[in-house]
Amino acid sequence: MKISLAPVSYCWDKTSIEDFYQQAANSQIDTVYLGETVCSRRRLLKFKDYLELAHMLKSHGKNVVLSTMALIEAQSELAELKKHIDNGEFSIEANDMAAVQLARQANIPFICGPTINNYNRASLDILQTMGMKRFVMPYELSKAWLESVISEPTKASFEVEVMGHGYIPLAHSARCFTAKHFGLNKDNCETICQQHPKGILAQTQEQQALLRLNGVQTQSAANIDLTQEIISMQQMGVDYFRVSPSSLACLDLANELTNALSHDVVDDKYELPFSHINNQQCNGYWFGQAGLAQV
Amino acid sequence: MELLCPAGNLASLKAAFRAGADAVYLGLKDDTNARSFAGLNFTPEQIKQATKLAHSQGRKVFLTLNTFPKPGEESRWYQAIDLAANIGMDALITADISLLDYASRRYPHLPLHLSVQASATNLAALDFYQQAFNIERAVLPRVLSIKQVKDLAKNSTVDLEVFAFGSLCIMAEGRCHLSSYVTGQSPNTGGSCSPAKHVRWQEQGDKCLTRLNEVLIDTSDVDQQLGYPVVCKGRYIAENQTQAKYLLESPTSLNTLSLLPQLASAGIKSLKIEGRQRSPAYVEQVTRVWREAIDSFLTHPESFTEQARWNQVLAKVSEGQVTTLGAYERQWQ
């Protein structure tokens, strides 16, 4: 099993993004996904900037995947998507059926991201015939679900990736909640989300951390942490354990996990590094419970 | 322009037809549809009856099969498709790729409507479903502005259906995990958003606490009229703030009556009324208003104006008695 780095879901300024990927390039992490997946109004980095970063990462031996938008509404967003598809070099992560369609038309393989609704084997098999080589399990599904889907009726021949660490993107809307919070709307948002590099935390009236507003995306307040499940995932046949970054510390964690896995240790004796990111944790989805639960 | 209304049971179906619906959509009594509430929906026998009744009145009936089959239980979804095809229902509303594939191969004569749960919001996604599964129609998610709806209608070869009235989902439908994050069940997996068994209202002095799987969604005055509790319409406290606010959306319903002329001239094929979980009385009142509005528009398109009493009737059955244009209006976004 390998460690992968999910695309940064927040609006970080260009220097922070460049520093982040420079450090990623110098790490042991195997696979790096990058690109804007949340909002086309975030223009601090353009497609060509991401492409430059992709080349830099590739030159450091990384497997690079260009991630695409989860919610595509305007024609201009389709044109931007087409640029990703036609890049001629890197794989793409499809996060909307539009990307599946364009990749299929261009006859290039693709990775189905977590926002493509893959809820059963028959659907995955159909997408595989269309060029899907790997899929990231939708966030709300469980270990039991995955076991069944990748082993029945036969062992799946596509690769499998599971989001193992980070805040969970739970929903996407036309509305920008960060802008709304500041009395703005999407069309005059002033890219105010860049002032919130981990989103805006929302608590219930009993001070339970519940959600995290990240522009048009709503995330979990709790951090999913499945680092203790890595061995069992490996035994099941999961190919990639995904770390979704919210800070530079996530790179250390991803790097440490990569090092641990490279020891070829698959039995329970090897002690995997614990997550260093102190936060409210959750792992409910993996165990078939409410996502916010900690089992 | 078709007026498509919800039917949670036979009484609602009859009410819809009495009030002038051209077609109704309904689901089976299980988790194969995203309004899987106790006491709601139809047995296969009732569906046969409903279809006969609809056809005897020259109306249409669509089967809603808009959840995603669970591994090992796929046969229930396939059987529902067999049923719809065998009794001559007028369309199947579905989102899952494997179901679209099954239906398009086995029953090429059965019209396929892409459910809103498939979250197809752009031309390329619509092309995907049309080319792969020959869908006839798509239901657009409630995340598009009126301009985007018009652009799609102009460029897509797929017929389009939009939500005209009812509860407002503010997230891209079919890809929202807010309910499962809190309760463990989502429309996709369990067949409903905010399952009723997880809802608890708790009185505390003059306050009413609304809980979803014990998570506090909102606090309100005891005498305040409450909408059905969903995560996106709760009041929460943002970082560095002390006051709880509706950070995502307040209880409100979608009402597009004012957009009727624009939707019609864009060539929208069908206007959908939300609310299979609502009463026959709701279905009848809402259907009657929309029938009158559509007929009034079709008779005199140039001089169409919304009548105040239409909006009064609609506001009365709306969440918090408030309505919005939602994402159709850029300002809302």
Automatic annotation (TrEMBL), chain A:
Cofactor: [4Fe-4S] cluster
Pathway assigned to this chain's UniProt record: Cofactor biosynthesis; ubiquinone biosynthesis
Keyword match rRNA processing: no
Binding locations of [4Fe-4S] cluster: 39, 176, 189, 193
InterPro entries referenced in this protein's UniProt entry, alphabetically: Peptidase_U32, RNA/ubiquinone_mod_enzymes, UbiV
Record's keyword terms, sorted: 4Fe-4S, Iron, Iron-sulfur, Metal-binding, Ubiquinone biosynthesis
Pfam family, one: Peptidase_U32
Iron-sulfur listed as a keyword: yes
Family to which the UniProt record says this protein belongs: Belongs to the peptidase U32 family. UbiV subfamily.
The protein's assembly and partners: Forms a heterodimer with UbiU.
Role of this protein: Required for O(2)-independent ubiquinone (coenzyme Q) biosynthesis. Together with UbiU, is essential for the C6-hydroxylation reaction in the oxygen-independent ubiquinone biosynthesis pathway.
Protein name: Ubiquinone biosynthesis protein UbiV
Lineage: Bacteria, Pseudomonadati, Pseudomonadota, Gammaproteobacteria, Alteromonadales
Automatic annotation (TrEMBL), chain B:
Recorded superkingdom: Bacteria
Keywords: 4Fe-4S, Iron, Iron-sulfur, Metal-binding, Ubiquinone biosynthesis
Pathway info: Cofactor biosynthesis; ubiquinone biosynthesis
Positions annotated to bind [4Fe-4S] cluster: 169, 176, 193, 232
Cofactor: [4Fe-4S] cluster
InterPro entries in the record: Peptidase_U32, RNA/ubiquinone_mod_enzymes, UbiU
Described function: Required for O(2)-independent ubiquinone (coenzyme Q) biosynthesis. Together with UbiV, is essential for the C6-hydroxylation reaction in the oxygen-independent ubiquinone biosynthesis pathway.
Family named by the database record: Belongs to the peptidase U32 family. UbiU subfamily.
Database matches in PANTHER family: PEPTIDASE U32 FAMILY, UBIQUINONE BIOSYNTHESIS PROTEIN UBIU
HAMAP family: UbiU (MF_02232)
Subunit structure: Forms a heterodimer with UbiV.
The protein's name: Ubiquinone biosynthesis protein UbiU
Source organism (scientific name): Shewanella electrodiphila
